[in-house]
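New to this. Please check this fold:
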Amino acid sequence: MDQCISDPDLRMISERLGSEWRKLATHLGLRAAEIDRIVMDDPGQTENQIISMLVKWRHQQSTSTDQRDVLCTALMEIGRRDIVEDLIEISGLQGPVTFEDLQQEIIDNYKQTATTIPAHPTLQSCQVGIEEFFVPLNLIKNIPSKNKSERLVTLTEGERLLDITETISLNSLDELLNPEVVKEIKVLLYGGVGTGKSTLLVQIANSSITLSSKPLLGRFELVLLIKLRQMQQSSCVLDAIFDQILAQNTKLTKNIVKGFIDDHESRTALLLDGVDQIPSHVLQSEEGVYRVQDILRNRVLTKSFVLVTTRPHMVESVLGCNPKFAQVETTGFNPQARDQFIRLNLPDDADMGEALVLYLKTNQHLWEMSKVPIISQMMYLVWKNQKSLPERMTELFAKFAEVLFIRRYEEMGDHHMMSTMMSTMMSIMMSIIDDLGRVALQGLQDSSGERLMFDETEFQDCQSALAEGCRVGFVQRETFTCGLDVKVLVTFPHKSIQEYFAACHLVKLLQDDVNNFRHHLEQIGEGNVLAMENLLRFCCGRSRQAAGLILDHIREMQGDKQELQGLARLSLLESGSEELATKLVRPTEVFCKSNEDLRSLSYYLQHVTPLEDTYFHIRMRKQELTILKGILLSDGMKSARWIEVVYYLSEQEGEELSLLEETLGVVDEQLYVTCMVYIEAKSWFDVEHVSNSCVRMQEQKLIRRLGLCMIQRSPDEVVDLLKALEGCRLEVLALYYINLHARLGDVSHITSSLTHLLLHACRLVDDVMKDLISILPAGHGLEVLALDGNAFSLDAVRALTCHLQGLPKLRHLRLCNIGLNAECIRQVVSENLPHLKKTNKGEFQKPKKTPTKS
């Protein structure tokens, strides 16, 4: 009898079902003729017809049939779960499902939704496998009740010490989900836009597909991932479970699911993604079971593990509900994880991935920004499609801002606005950027010093822009204590974002009033112009009129000519205006230390007449060989006086020195070219390949002078390479952090041609001094000797300097940090080498009468 449906149950169903009874009859297996007969026997009385149909169906069931299962299934198939729930509540019916059915439905959902993540920030349909592409994040947990006043910041009222909570690093998802480590079963995970919070929760859900999987510590029987931004009508998590996780035709009901959760409360993990994205009126709703607000306040599911994510501006609001939340911040990737992420996403072309990694290492502000996963994602997508990042930094930052803004509407699901009102959206975005940029500029040009952190009150004239900026990710709000004061402070995700917004505002001022623009420009002088590099470059990229005024300002400025000329070339590149090249001072010496420097030099050389008697110092890596080749072939280099190329071997196996040979092969033989090859700790190199390339470059007269630098390599690697280079005229040898104790004599293979010998921190002590003296016989042409970071006695220094009297060309000696008093060293050097004058502590140099090439 327990399996049968009672007459009162049938009466309740007949009162609720209405015109859908025919559909239910069909799902219960009644034939069309049977349904028609019921209608004919009792025309016009719907409830009676329903009762007749249900009674007929019940009579047709065998005694072994579970009528409850059949009827509840049919009702849910026609979308009447509400009747099933009422039936359960009135009759005590348990329903046709088990706890294992709930688990399986969740797993089935996660197999569809939690095994992939977006491969594109604004194209959700483009997905990749999470197991292959998830990279661990940098997770920092605050230690409660342990504060230190160590963060000194500059605010409008002056410098202030902020109370900063001490932290520990969480090394894995295991630790994040382990109450013994985080010390609570309620965790607040916060971080700026695109720092990987949502992806991390998807990875947790994916791990739960196997309930005993290690990342979940085998603790949880239910793992429920709820995207709060999708809760537009109700704050009831039970509703969200049915809307987001369970199948549309599920046999489960809300009462059943609630019962299962209540029974397994301590073995349930609830993942609430994006509490900052749920509409406020929904969050404050008073209706529903397991309301989000009640969960945050620990009024329900008090024994469940709850992980909530948010952007920083909502942290205080969540803690106001329950201050016992363990606070964990995700700062995105560490450098190693960022590099892994890039390489994973460029699997078909290892060289391309490696080139982007190396490019970021030579571009400080992009290197910092790329630790934010969404920024790193944008970079590799551009790099993958264009095989480079835009030459103009402004283009890249404009795209970043646009993607962050569009992503906000993607999250809101407002596809209609995106497709029909793009120009309006961009206008709104620029208005927000201009409002935020006003404060950003005030911070950069503050008379008391640059400010990167702002009091919330500084945005009182643009509160709506601040609120939207927080939601989009343009800025973030955090609360700090400062003594007895509580301060709500605003920061930009990165200084370069602040500089871009400030430049957008400054260009807007130029459009309105050129004198206002000039006023701000005049505040940039010799003392702060280099600190304002990004601001000026962004202005040049936003407006050619601004670029012309800025280049005039740089040309008239006093200061380090090389630095100012480098800034002018970067600003010219950013402007994209070849006509402005004439505003630059023609240089006599050029230093290129980064990819940007090379690109700006290449652009400049395309639009000027040849530079006469100019020295070029170029540091570069494999990915910049194409740029170097264009520079060497340009007409502007025809009259160069000297070109020094410092080449860093990459970490990837390959014949890259052959490419360097090919590149240097385009140089006119009349040009004076030198080459210094750097082999760093992680550089890949083959002794035969390196030695053969060096010999060929000299034999083919591609270069006039060759140098070699090795850093943190084994002594055997050093000795093997120097033996292979014995027939090569090596003029510069620099060895850093290599243990040459008792091995110094092995470098004698190439010392006859050396003009520069630098042995930094090579564990040299007194007993190697004889070897050093022996490889530098009297009359040797050595010009520079550096022994920094080793350990010598004063007697050893005296013996060395006495011997160096026999080296007529010696003009530079460095003995820094060798364990001796600097004054004692000076006295010995002055006595034995009086032609060398002290320039810095431990450094001595022959005064220059005329400039020399070296």
In short: Residues 748 and 840 are 30 Å apart (CA to CA). DSSP finds 37 helices and 23 strands in the chain. The chain has a mean pLDDT of 88. The domain at 7-96 is CATH 1.10.533.10 (Death Domain, Fas).
